[in-house]
Amino acid sequence: MMSPCLLVFLFFISTVSATPHLLRRRLSESARYLTKEELWFPQTLDHYSPYDHRKFQQRYYEFLDHFRIPDGPVFLVICGEYSCDGIRNDYIGVLAKKFGAAVVSLEHRYYGKSSPFKSLATKNLRYLSSKQALFDLAVFRQNYQDSLNAKLNRTNADNPWFVFGVSYPGALSAWFRLKFPHLTCGSLASSAVVLAVYNFTEFDQQIGESAGVECKAALQETTRLIERKLVTNGKALKASFNAADLEIDGDFLYFLADAAVTAFQYGNPDILCKPLVKAKKDGEDLVDAYAKFIKEFYLGTEGESTQDYNQNNLKNAAITENSSGRLWWFQVCTEVAYFQVAPSNDSIRSSKVDTRYHLDLCKNVFGEGIFPDVDATNIYYGGTKIAGSKIVFTNGSQDPWRRASKQISSPNMPSYTITCHNCGHGTDMRGCPQSPFNIEGNEKNCTSPDAVHKVRQKIIEHMDLWLSQCQDTGRTCI
């Protein structure tokens, strides 16, 4: 057996021999998460069947460093339409420390490592829905509370719980409080897309507002030029964007539109607008300028892939690291739509990205009979007229998704908009811009840090009140 001194020496040698860049990368990666230690929970496959007792292994994480034993709150951070690889060290870590909270996070069914089946064939996706996901959270919450009680050698105790989510998980957070009010003291619904929208023309309109007059005009002219080149020499055009694999023109045009969306959505408008506006003023080729943005920022810095837009790839039912795209499109095509279609007038994206494109994609990828019943979804949850309580809604002023969120305050459900030049999706939790990652959601790089700080203070005030009301009654309250 090696002596402790020798082990320390060997560790020291291996550390100093690593390059400074590699060390910084390791430290940076570890700092991005409060924890990445995987834990597993046996989850019910179908919560709506009294006869189907099948289970699947669902991944979750816990972080207890700030937990005030035994009666501290438990923060449930909802993961969404992606592989959930740990609990991010965003603003949730600051809140956990302030409130003495344990933090737990459950991976969404089917995504990441929480797939119930070995194939993602359409027939196997029947249990993939927001309704099933909400029951997953409820069952997990009850079982985690029971296991916590067992560890603390107590019975019938109930810690105060608070639920968090950003984007689709933000909607799940609001819906969880709506459907299971006895299981949480309150919810934060950050950039919560609670309104299912069939033809989401407001999405493109918000991009125009966020861009401003000059950038909007440059984007519109770029789109017109691209449409012309697509007709005359589409193959060369796609290759100039490193997107030769997108054989369907609609996929290519959707990819180009989404790249612009990302700049505003995640707090990087200047990376797109400044070079594009300059190119227009200088009489340079706008298509080349846009291609440079796509290749360097969207595909480069952001690490996006054209495969997420390729319908041939989306049809792949094998479970791979790129499966999230197929899974989310299934939810889009069956529940919420959010079809980001071009408005009839003054559009930024190509008019070819229309309703027919989306419906054809749903049919091509998943087969006949797949259609998003948005009316049923909005009737079930209430849309922006959600009849909940003790839910905080937050949105960023530049975020196109805010048009599907609850933006009007009501007495039991306050809503706040963080207004600044680079305030986007989930700014209250993530800071801005969101690439590179901001440790603890630091707001210092937002163009108005004070705007972020004020909304965060409001969130804390509501949490203080609602958690104290839970603690006063000795149980999670309605």
From TrEMBL:
- Specify the signal sequence span: 1-18
Pfam families with a match to the protein in the record: Peptidase_S28
Kindly state which keywords UniProt assigns to this record, in alphabetical order: Carboxypeptidase, Glycoprotein, Hydrolase, Protease, Signal
Uppermost EC category: hydrolase
Superkingdom of source: Eukaryota
| Enzyme Commission no | 3.4.21.26
The record ties this protein, via SUPFAM superfamilies, to: alpha/beta-Hydrolases
Checking InterPro entries in the record gives: AB_hydrolase_fold, Peptidase_S28
GO biological process terms on file = proteolysis
From the Swiss-Prot or TrEMBL record, what is one GO molecular function term? dipeptidyl-peptidase activity
What the entry lists under PANTHER family is as follows: PROTEASE S28 PRO-X CARBOXYPEPTIDASE-RELATED, THYMUS-SPECIFIC SERINE PROTEASE
To which protein family does this belong?
Belongs to the peptidase S28 family.
Name of the molecule in the record: Putative prolyl oligopeptidase
